[in-house]
Amino acid sequence: MGFTKPLNRTSRLRIDMTGYQYVSLFLVFFSAVAGSPLYQQQHVPVADRVVDLLTRMNIQEKINELHLVHDHAPFLDVYVANKTGLGGIKMAALHGSDPLSVVKARNEAQQRLMNSSRLGIPTMFVQESLHSGTTAGTIFPMPCLMGSSWNPDLIQQAYDVIARETRALGADLAYAPVLQLFTDPRFGRTQEGFSEDPFVVSVLGAAATKGLQGGITGGPLAYLDQDHVTSLGKHYAAYGRTEGGLNASPADMNERTLREVWHLELYSTIVLMWAFSVRCI
Fold it and tell me: What is the DSSP string of the chain?
């Protein structure tokens, strides 16, 4: 560019912003020439499609992509009327007593949201897949019993089946596995964890995550196949160490206890190595 002196911070920011605007204008122009929005063209690199889509989204549309509906309230009519899209829907919020009716409700909800929103962004569907993928599907033992097997390969195979049934239902993301150490028998969700031992939880948690995602590790260039789902490890470190054994109560411990007993490093390693997502609450 021929600069004879170092750029100050303001100059760098101005150049970066100008460059971003040029890229945005180019992508919008290219979309108009191609006849459809760039973000809807499958042959275009994903990174370019993302930039194009973000430049088109307004603030409310971006906020709505952070919304995930869990309840049975008539939420769908509200988001359809607002025409601003919806980030995700928990499968339990759809009305259906069997897999076929749930799939039908899922497809209808997706169609309504995409047709009503300005940009037609599809919503994400989430399923509780702790030890089964769907109603009337295969039911595996609860994780506390899986943990007693001490068999990572078997657990990976089990979660591979869970992933396939979850995906067949139309879900994109699974609320599993639970990566907690449950040491207080008063805690009402101890059956959700593999063990009270951090090493066992780390090994079996990685196996479950690999099963759900088809052995595919997380990363910017990694994409799942059509038979597997995104694994969401939960509920983050020390969740199972709440005071009085009460769900979602405060966990009182120092950093040394957190690292040496609850093994924040091991938990982080699982997330960084395998999981595409993690739950923070």
Answer: ---SS---HHHHHHHHHHHHHHHHHHHHHHHHHHTS-GGG-TTS-HHHHHHHHHHH--HHHHHHTT-EE-S-SSHHHHHHHHTS--SEEEGGGS--SSHHHHHHHHHHHHHHHHHHSSS-PPPEEEE--SSBSSTTS-BPPPHHHHHTT--HHHHHHHHHHHHHHHHHTT-SEE---B--B---TT-TTGGGSSBSSHHHHHHHHHHHHHHHTTTPPPSTT----TT--EEEEBS-TTTT--GGG-TT------HHHHHHTS-HHHHHHHHHHT-SEE---
